[in-house]
Amino acid sequence: MILILISISISHAPPPPTPKHTSSQSLTTPPSLPLPSRSPTPFPTHKFTPSHPPNSPLHSHSLPSHFPPPFPPPPTKPPKKTHPPPSPPLPPPTPTTTTTQELREAFRPYGWMLTAAVAAGKSTIDTAYDIDDLANSLDFLHIMAYDYHGKWDRRTGHNAPLYSREDEPEEEKMLNVASTLKVYLDEGAPPEKLVLGLGFYGRTFNLADPQENGIAAPTLTTALAGPYTKEEGFMGYNEICEKQTTEKGLWTLVWQKTHQVPYMIRDNMWIGYDDPISVSLKVAYAQKLGLGGVMAWAIDTDDFQGVCSDTRMKYPLLRAINKALTANMNERPSETPRPTKPSLDDDDFDDRFDDSNTLDSREHESGRPSRVGGRGGSAVATPAVTVLLALLLTSLAAR
């Protein structure tokens, strides 16, 4: 009870008395006290002995050694770049022989030979080659005298005809081996530097009409492919002669007398190719012109297993080339003649090989005495007898 009374008495204690002011008194702000006057005290200066040599950049600042060095001067702006004056116009392109000349000089210390594979088409020769300069820079020019025709023509044509036909259009009369060689020789290529390329393969076509199956017959866009090379429109000689052996009697073999090359037909399938006889004729023609040699594209499509011959003779095309070179070695002229035209009327060649190569089907019991027509003219059909080709080649080599 006592504690409660005390708290009550405290809580009800009267407030302190408020002082009373008379009307005569005014409430004014006390005057501000004057601030003491202070004279500025000079900042003490200290003289430091610099720790840097007199020639130091810090010496002129008279800073103590523990001070950081002053900031480097702001970098100056680099001078404004000026564009170089425009280059003079480039000289006209130098001939393509520049590279071959440089290669020849690089090869010279090693005694290496420098050769080139060159095209057979006249348009390419005229546009891309300086024959005279190339002949001076190269040891040999390997002429790829094949692919004159293919399924891209949309009509049949031989891969590598030796001569032209009279009924061909003028622009196509250049698409043969004889015309190509004439272009190179007329342009100044030394014959001893020219190497004639021989194709060990054929070009295939699908005829639009099996009844029209000669040279220049209409064809489809598709074409037969070989079982090994697997390229549409292309078959190696090994694939072609294998068909002649395994499908004997189903194919009609035709010798095109003007072109001096063979082709074969079965239904709507048409294949133009080279065989031992046609490559022998081309070798003989190269020797007649005094060329440096022949080359082949390519030996892997020759009959390297000997499956096309009853005697299992391997490499029949290479053997034919070798025999032709050997047989005609003593007949090579001392002075190289120049061809005068794409030798359609080359009587010495036609007379020499006409009896052996224009095979009449009546000479063989299994032959069919028929003529296969087309815009390319007449051609004699013969059976596919590989042994006969070997015998003919042997007779040619023996002459």
TrEMBL record:
User: In what ranges is there compositional bias, type Pro residues?
Assistant: 31-43, 66-77, 84-95
Family, according to the entry, reads as follows:
Belongs to the glycosyl hydrolase 18 family. Chitinase class II subfamily.
**Which molecular-function annotations from GO does this UniProt entry contain?**
chitin binding; endochitinase activity
Under Enzyme Commission nomenclature, its number is 3.2.1.14
- Which reaction is recorded as catalysed by this protein? Random endo-hydrolysis of N-acetyl-beta-D-glucosaminide (1->4)-beta-linkages in chitin and chitodextrins
Q: Name one GO cellular component term.
A: extracellular region
Is Signal tagged as a keyword? yes
An example of a Pfam family matching this protein is Glyco_hydro_18
Q: Where is this region: Disordered?
A: 11-99, 326-378
What general EC class does the enzyme of this chain belong to? hydrolase
Indicate, by first and last residue, each region the UniProt record lists as having compositional bias (Low complexity).
20-30
GO BP annotations of the record are: chitin catabolic process; polysaccharide catabolic process
UniProt keyword terms in alphabetical order: Carbohydrate metabolism, Chitin degradation, Chitin-binding, Disulfide bond, Hydrolase, Polysaccharide degradation, Signal
- Where's the GH18 domain? 101-328
- Quote the protein name from its UniProt record: chitinase
Domain of life assignment: Eukaryota
